[in-house]
Design brief:
Elements (H helix, E strand, L loop, with lengths): L1 E5 L4 H12 L7 E6 L22 E2 L3 H5 L3 E4 L3 H13 L5 E4 L2 H4 L4 E4 L1 H14 L3 E4 L2 H15 L3 E9 L7 H17 L1 H5 L5 H13 L31 H13 L13 E4 L8 E10 L5 H9 L5 E3 L4 H7 L2 H4 L5 E9 L2 E12 L2 H15 L2
Parallel strand pairs: 1-2, 1-4, 2-3, 4-5, 5-7, 6-7, 8-9, 11-12
Antiparallel strand pairs: 8-10, 10-13, 12-13
Helix pairs in contact: 1-14, 6-10, 7-9
The chain binds L-homoserine.
The site of L-homoserine has 8 residues, from loops.
Length: 377
């Protein structure tokens, strides 16, 4: 098989390349690298020496070069998918398309891939000749990697989430903006901070004044200050009081699980309030479940812990939660931390949980490279 790789230089693409090298994915296929800006150039030295890799970059808009690939895997983003996918199909290409963009995700001829959770859905789709395999929304993927066991066991009557989403979900520029704002705030009170006798309310007043006077340029990506604040809205306004991110939570979770429209099983009600916070690249979520029966907490813990090799069950104690259940602890690893598991005051069927996953790994790159390996079986 020949695999065409597009968008491998951006943030998600770079994480993907690192993971593919770590897992020795190269060598299982012939790799052709595409570029939107540098076609014809030699492969960057970081990629030279990988097995079965073509030495030059191809033009990412060259349909005939794309058509020569059995699989196109792109992290280039939804605009590229919008531009290239349809013309490529219209040109008669029948290869496998793998990306992480929202463009194709909800189409009937596309499967949202998260194989540790929905391998049976992927297998069925492959048997039916489906060719589009799309990574899910990062929040959804991280959540299902954490508590997919409860869905697989058919225990969930409904779920609500409050998310704490990292800057990286917006993109690389958003991460830079957050850090720049942090620096600006700190600089505005540095002298006061250095003086142990200074008044904290004076520091607070000055920080607020700085936040309120950040320029349009200093807030160009998040639109409002994020450092020292939060933003309780992510992605587009759907006009009905919900954000697109919140809609995806319900729609995509059900689609990954093979429920809802197009499947023979009713959707499970899932709703959320999605919030941007000043974390770098881990999406955290506070979840509340109503289970359809009273299951002992010990059994729930065991089910979750044994669901997949990446879940790390964190004991519901202060010490374990503050040490192990944080973005700082989870970032950069494939671990999915699940903690604060307890029955809630509303009754024995109500369960609380807190989950954390690196949104660039399980939330973006990892399901794509795993799908590629599934195609190579
Ligand atoms: N929409 C997500 C976010 C990112 O903004 O955090 C990727 O799904």
């Amino acid at each position: 098989m020949r695999v065409g790789l597009v968008g491998w230089r951006g943030m998600v693409g770079s994480v993907l390349m690192t993971r593919m090298v770590e897992e020795s994915d190269f060598g299982h296929f012939e790799a052709r690298f595409f570029s939107t800006s540098n076609a014809g150039a030699m492969l960057p030295t970081s990629l030279v020496g990988l097995p079965k890799v073509e030495p030059r970059l191809y033009d990412a808009h060259d349909l005939s070069a794309l058509q020569e690939c059995d699989v196109v895997l792109t992290c280039q983003g939804s605009d590229y998918t919008k531009e290239v996918y349809e013309p490529l199909r219209q040109a008669g290409w029948s290869g496998y398309w793998i990306d992480a963009a929202k463009t194709l995700r909800m189409r009937d001829d596309a499967v949202v891939v998260l194989d540790p959770v929905n391998q049976p859905v992927i297998d069925q789709a492959l048997n039916k000749g489906i060719k589009n395999f799309i990574g899910g929304n990062c929040t959804v993927s991280c959540m299902l990697m954490a508590v997919g066991a409860l869905y697989k066991a058919g225990l969930v009557e409904f779920m609500t989430a409050t998310t704490y989403q990292a800057a990286s979900g917006g993109g690389a520029q958003h991460m830079r903006e957050l850090l720049s704002q942090m620096g600006t705030l700190n600089a505005s009170v540095r002298q006061l901070l250095d003086d142990p006798a200074s008044a904290i309310l004076e520091i607070d007043r000055q920080v607020l004044a700085t936040q309120q006077s950040l320029s349009a340029e200093q807030t160009q990506h998040f639109l409002v200050p994020l450092a020292g604040s939060l933003i309780p809205w992510i992605d587009a306004d759907r006009g009905d009081g919900t954000s697109l991110e919140e809609w995806k939570g319900g729609a995509e979770t059900n689609k990954i699980l093979g429920r809802g429209p197009g499947f023979n099983q009713p959707a499970i009600p899932i709703d959320s309030i999605c919030v941007r916070i000043g974390a770098m690249r881990c999406h955290s979520q506070s979840l509340m479940f109503k289970l359809n029966k009273n299951v002992p907490l010990k059994d729930i813990e065991q089910m979750i812990a044994e669901d997949n090799p990446w879940v790390r069950l964190i004991a519901n104690t202060k010490e374990d939660s503050i040490q192990e259940l944080t973005p700082v602890k989870v970032t950069g690893s494939l671990n999915i931390a699940v903690g604060r598991l307890r029955k809630l005051a509303m009754g024995e069927q109500y369960l609380g949980a807190f989950t954390i996953g690196d949104q660039l790994l399980w939330g973006a790159a990892e399901p794509l490279r795993r799908m590629l390996r599934i195609l190579m079986r």
